[in-house]
Amino acid sequence: MSSPSQGSKPLVVNESIKLASNHLRGTIASDLADPSTGTISEDNNQLTKFHGLYMQDDRDLRNALKKAGQEKAFAFMLRLRLPGGRATPQQWLVLDDLAGVVASPSLRLTTRQTFQFHGILKANAKPLIQRMHQVLLDSISACGDVNRNVMVSPNPERNPLLQEVHAQARAWSEYALPRTRAYHEIWLDEELVAGGEPEPLYGDTYLPRKFKTGFALPPSNDIDVFSQDLGFIAIVENERLAGYNVTVGGGLGMSHGNAETFPRLADVLGFILPDKVNAIGEAVLTTQRDHGDRTNRKHARLKYTIEDRGIEWLKAEVEKRSGITFEPARSFEFLTIEDPHGWHECADGTWFFGLHILSGRIKDLPDWPMKTALREIATVHTGDFRLTPSQNLSVSGVTPEQKPVIEAILAKHGLTGENNRSRLRLNALSCVALPTCGLALAESERILPEILAKFETVLEEAGLSDDAISLRITGCPNGCARPYLAEIGLVGRAPNKYALYLGASYIGTRLNRLVSPSVTIDDAVKILTPIIKRYALERLTGESFGDFCERAILPADATFHSVGTPRTP
Ligand code: SRM
Ligand code: SF4
Fold first, then answer.
1. Do 443 and 323 share a domain, yes or no?
2. What predicted TM-score, i.e. pTM, was given to this entire model?
3. Whether residue 246 has pLDDT greater than 80
4. What is the reported pLDDT for 556?
């Protein structure tokens, strides 16, 4: 399939790289074999993303290495494909072992329910992937211009129907995988296919940009469905899964000072029956494949296609391609985005333990040996592990007999109190940022503990220690910790300078608004202290902090581009 026409504008360079790559092979294999450098070519770096790998360098070491006339400290980041975020204990033990042997010692749980390794030297990438493959784990399509890791609420206690939703999310994930064998050839030494295998869903140039799908089961909006390119909101009627409301066109990335880029909430297209998920997904994905902007990567997400052409156009196109007519959207209600922490009994008599892990960083510190504790749990656990959309972990499928065993392991390592934190801390999200992210303008994960300590003091003084307020921070405006859906959003602008956003709804249905374009963390605390005090005194019954800011604090003419609450065509 040839690239769609884009009028007179030239296509971006990524398009010719993809086209010339023989379905994502490029010259990655020979770059990997070149011992003269720790990195790979820029073209191949675009292609390895489709295999889940980003070439990065340690930004803490940049200046010193430059001074010494040495090459940057290059290393791959690898992101796994893990639809719905489930891993067996056996898989856990392999990942735990790889971190520290062929990658940096910590494991990182991401905001899309998967694992990331950092610090993988070029020569170690293949052995790491081969070891993952032995336990049926891979990183195919974890990054790149394809359907990314599919999200689905991991918390099985809420509704037995979640297993059904989970199965459909996995089926869609499989259906939307590229067909190329490039990953198997390059990383697993499979025999070379003589080129030209068909790529029916994607064509030779894949999508114009990344594409993200999530499945939500109300009343929880833990996956932030309105931030996804494609969303399925499960509708339960008469205790069965009636179908899904389909959402399209969410996306959060933007650039500071570029009004043509903005976060956008998805629109609700309408209702479909459960067996129509793949057909609708394919129609949305191929519409974006054929009509997304391939001339400007900052304008290439589905949200801009919809802004340019209109939601009615998109709906008609999807109905035409799928042969399915949307029914009017059914009613649903989101009440929370929070992960359930602690022990919860499930419908099948098993238990799960929701464990808070700040920023999803699993490592061993002298007074916090979380990696060791989880390794010990994995050696005795007979259920599985579930990664949550908020960078936390659920130890799931625990039998009543095993509960005390798991508790004893956490107690032995002094980790019993991990969930007894302020709800501000339990809800907080941060992206990775420095030192590995090449796009970071400011600290995020590394500064989060300091920020939380400051705000916890303010909340305590206002008598709000037990209040759930969502705070999310990122090191740049790309939005990896979904900061525009936080009641308090901090978005990196420059070293120790952040844009401050307030007023998102607590349940992920309204974006926040820009309050200050560039403040230090201390300035942000100063701005927020009187607002938090007013909230304690003036809030209406049950009013969340975001709703209070929107009602009482934010000027009507706030400058931030917000598409507002989700619309239905
Ligand atoms: Fe992200 C790029 C980390 C979720 C929007 N993201 C990156 C890169 C790969 C930097 C790069 O391109 O060089 C970051 C790697 C940092 C590192 O060192 O590990 C990175 N993104 C992450 C993770 C690990 C954040 C985290 O701390 O958990 C998340 C991994 C998700 C996953 O498992 O697949 C992550 N990124 C998100 C989300 C949230 C989501 O999807 O729910 C978003 C906002 C939603 C969206 O896509 O609109 C997000 N990441 C971006 C963007 C902006 C895209 C855009 O449309 O403008 C970029 C930059 C880009 O694509 O050019 C980006
Ligand atoms: Fe990097 Fe920016 Fe994403 Fe943070 S938000 S991980 S700084 S791209």
1. no
2. 0.96
3. yes
4. 56
For 378, half-sphere exposure in the C-beta direction (CA atoms, 13 angstrom radius) is 20
CA distance 511 to 498: 17
Contacts of 419 (CB under 8 A, 6+ apart): 341, 342, 354, 355, 356, 426
Residues 271 and 409 in one domain: no
Give yes or no: residues 367 and 486 share one domain: no
Which ligand has the minimum distance to the alpha carbon of residue 477? 2
pLDDT at 161: 86
Say whether 480 is catalytic. yes
324 vs 192: which has the higher pLDDT: 324
3-state secondary structure 381-411: CCCEEEECCCCCEEEEEECCCCHHHHHHHHH
Mean of pLDDT over the chain: 94
Could you say which ligand is closest to the alpha carbon of residue 146? 1
122 is catalytic: no
Q: Which residues 6+ apart lie within 8 Å of 363 measured at CB? A: 105, 106, 107, 370, 371
Whole-number Cα distances in Å, 397 to 145, 150, 350, 476, 507 = 35, 21, 5, 38, 27
User: For residue 359, what are the domain limits?
Assistant: 342-419
- For residue 264, the 8-state DSSP code is B
User: What whole-number percentage of the chain has pLDDT above 90?
Assistant: 91
The response to whether residue 254 sits with its C-beta less than 6 Å from ligand 2 reads no
- Within 8 A by CB and 6+ apart from 117, the residues are 77, 78, 98, 99, 103, 104, 107, 108, 128
* Catalytically annotated residue among 18, 25, 148, 513: 148
Task: Tell me the pLDDT tens digit for each residue of 415-442.
Answer: 999 999 999 999 999 999 999 999 999 9
- Quick one: pLDDT at residue 4? 47
Is 431 among the residues known to form the active site? yes
